[in-house]
């Protein structure tokens, strides 16, 4: 489990295709320090397993199902990715419950420059509208964010300068595809209500 508070951005150093999957070699200063083989790590919001680690680099493998549901297949060498290690039981929960189980991808459709922030508008698949509420939580490429506004099948998130500096939001342009994970509490509530 994660919180959606990105620890750092890592760099894709190598990509190897193997039987329908991609093995990514990621270089990172902070998050690689205490990673071991078999540990989980969120890469752009996708929970992946570390399969190799050497120094500041580690490998993760995205298989067919992951590549189909997420934007990982569009990554290229030298791209930056958001990284977060799993939540420890003793840690503060500063964001919201993020599982790293991406529900869908969305597309950046507008970026509004404001005086002290940026409003990013993201188009999402209409069938997920039921999970979105004003000031509710959503993870975008693994970043825990608050939904500032809703319109049609788009939602807006306000990005502060700190988030812009320490995540991949600084690289987003109109047309960028992002991973979306809707609030797990909303999904459990829906499941419970359907049964009762």
Q: Write down the Rg.
A: 16 Å
The low-pLDDT segments are none
What's the average pLDDT? 94
Total count of strands: 12
Shape: globular
Number of helices: 3
Largest sheet: 6 strands, antiparallel, barrel
Distance between the termini: 27 Å
Strand line-up in the sheet with most strands: 1-2-5-4-3-6
Describe, in plain words, how this protein is organized in 3D.
The model has no long low-confidence stretch (mean pLDDT about 95). The chain has helices spanning about 65-70, 160-165, 185-195; strands at about 10-20, 20-25, 40-45, 45-55, 55-60, 80-85, 105-115, 120-125, 135-140, 145-150, 155-160, 175-180. Helix content is about 10%, strand content about 40%. The chain is globular. By secondary structure, the chain is mainly beta. The strands form two sheets. It has a six-stranded antiparallel barrel. Strands 7-8-11-10-9-12 form a six-stranded antiparallel beta barrel.
Pick out its properties:
196 residues, mainly beta, six-stranded antiparallel beta barrel, six-stranded antiparallel barrel, 3 helices, 42% strand
Characterize this entry briefly.
12% of the residues lie in helices and 42% in strands.
Layout of strands and helices, then pairs:
Layout: E1 8-18, E2 21-27, E3 40-43, E4 46-54, E5 57-62, H1 64-69, E6 80-84, E7 104-113, E8 118-123, E9 137-140, E10 143-151, E11 154-159, H2 161-166, E12 177-182, H3 184-195
